[in-house]
């Protein structure tokens, strides 16, 4: 039988937590950290998407909340000590600019 703590966890809250993790992963200035944080959040949630045990869900949500706090703190530290962009990032930015220019020309 679910406890009071597990009853308060709703699907919209879990989705909100997931989106916050993905959003926070974008705060890293380092490409490698940013991609790692994004993949870790996405893979973790997808791996447990079919979980039905309320106690296990509560445990996973608590762990995700803790990871969100760590990710926010690490993202802040990472932004304080940024480095030059990698070649990979430059090509990604160039592709985005080209798409935006093409979209602006079409509109």
TrEMBL record:
Residues covered by the Complex 1 LYR protein domain: 14-68
Annotated transmembrane regions: none
GO CC annotations, alphabetized: L-cysteine desulfurase complex; mitochondrion
Signal peptide bounds: none
GO biological process terms held by the UniProt record: iron-sulfur cluster assembly
Domain of life of the source: Eukaryota
Coiled coil: none
A Pfam family per the record: Complex1_LYR
InterPro entries in the cross-refs: Complex1_LYR_dom, Complex1_LYR_LYRM4, ISC_assembly_LYR
CDD domains in UniProt: Complex1_LYR_LYRM4
Family listed: Belongs to the complex I LYR family.
Protein name as annotated: Complex 1 LYR protein domain-containing protein
């Amino acid at each position: 039988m679910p406890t009071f703590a597990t009853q308060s966890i709703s699907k919209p809250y879990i989705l909100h937590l997931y989106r916050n993790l993905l959003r926070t992963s974008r705060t890293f200035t380092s490409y490698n950290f940013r991609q790692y944080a994004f993949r870790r959040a996405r893979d973790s949630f997808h791996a447990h998407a079919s979980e039905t045990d309320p106690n296990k869900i509560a445990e996973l949500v608590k762990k995700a909340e803790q990871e969100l706090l760590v990710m926010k703190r690490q993202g802040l530290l990472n932004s304080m000590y940024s480095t030059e962009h990698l070649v990979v990032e430059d090509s990604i930015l160039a592709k985005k600019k080209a798409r935006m220019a093409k979209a602006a020309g079409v509109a």
